[in-house]
Task: inverse folding
């Protein structure tokens, strides 16, 4: 970008001094410093656009030419079995998440020690950020790997470092928007109540799916379609009664007994 800067007062001063103007150029070269994304990818992880994740012909996942792992960073469960699994292959689980519009919950990483950075929910909208947790590999991914390459790994002895060593140039079909480092803050934004209220009022306290009018205004929710609570774009929000909300992917816990 060219800057047009005038130095009229300085030029007058030079003229009064009887000095002559000269043309001068600096020989200092400004180097462009790029973020070492490779280090970030191997440590904290990256949120990437879902469309940037490649799926290789063999089904393995890749981003920016690098073999990667996918996992869900924001969690509510604390037990080992309540935590998400990590993926290296475009398995049935990832396909289902993509079909249901929930794939944006995944982040990309290349951490090789079996630990992952998690945002763990500890209250309605409070999280312990970047907590280190051990995650198990997805059984669908592992079963494919064992069949395809005649391996005999189980979820407890699968070695990520060895896997990356053997597959340094394999990709993922659909890339998440973020890595585990660049992922937006977990949970609802501070102004969620006003966002939710505005949305409900706009639809006159009526469920967008079944058309039920919630007269008492207590059984109406605003649903995040892709499961990312920080994404409050119009296209990601839907006003639903509690029954319709419970029918959404991973919302079965909301069903009334």
Result:
């Amino acid at each position: 970008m060219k800057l047009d800067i005038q130095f009229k007062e300085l030029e007058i001063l030079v003229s009064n001094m009887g000095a002559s103007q000269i043309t001068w150029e600096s020989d200092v070269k400004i180097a462009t410093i790029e973020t070492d994304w490779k280090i970030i990818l191997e440590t904290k992880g990256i949120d990437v656009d879902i469309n940037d994740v490649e799926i290789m012909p063999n089904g393995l996942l890749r981003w920016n030419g690098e073999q990667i792992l996918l996992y869900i960073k924001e969690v509510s469960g604390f037990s080992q079995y309540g935590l998400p699994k990590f993926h290296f292959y475009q398995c049935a689980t990832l396909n289902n998440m993509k079909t249901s519009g929930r794939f944006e919950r995944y982040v990309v990483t290349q951490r090789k020690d079996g630990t992952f950075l998690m945002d763990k929910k500890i209250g309605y909208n409070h999280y312990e950020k970047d907590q280190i947790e051990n995650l198990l590999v997805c059984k669908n991914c592992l079963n494919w790997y064992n069949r395809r390459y005649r391996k005999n790994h189980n979820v407890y002895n699968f070695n990520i470092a060895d896997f990356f060593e053997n597959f340094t140039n394999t990709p993922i079909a659909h890339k998440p928007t973020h890595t585990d480092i660049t992922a937006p803050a977990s949970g609802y934004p501070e102004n969620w109540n006003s966002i939710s209220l505005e949305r409900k009022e706009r639809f006159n306290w009526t469920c967008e799916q079944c058309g039920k009018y919630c007269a008492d205004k207590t059984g109406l929710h605003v649903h995040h379609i892709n499961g990312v609570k920080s994404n409050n774009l119009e296209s990601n929000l839907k006003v639903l009664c509690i029954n319709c909300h419970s029918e959404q992917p991973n919302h079965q816990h909301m069903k009334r007994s």
Notes: Confidence is low (pLDDT under 50) at residues 30-34, 169-174. The radius of gyration is 26 Å. Residues 39 and 45 are 9 Å apart (CA to CA). Residues 139-149 form the longest helix (11 residues).
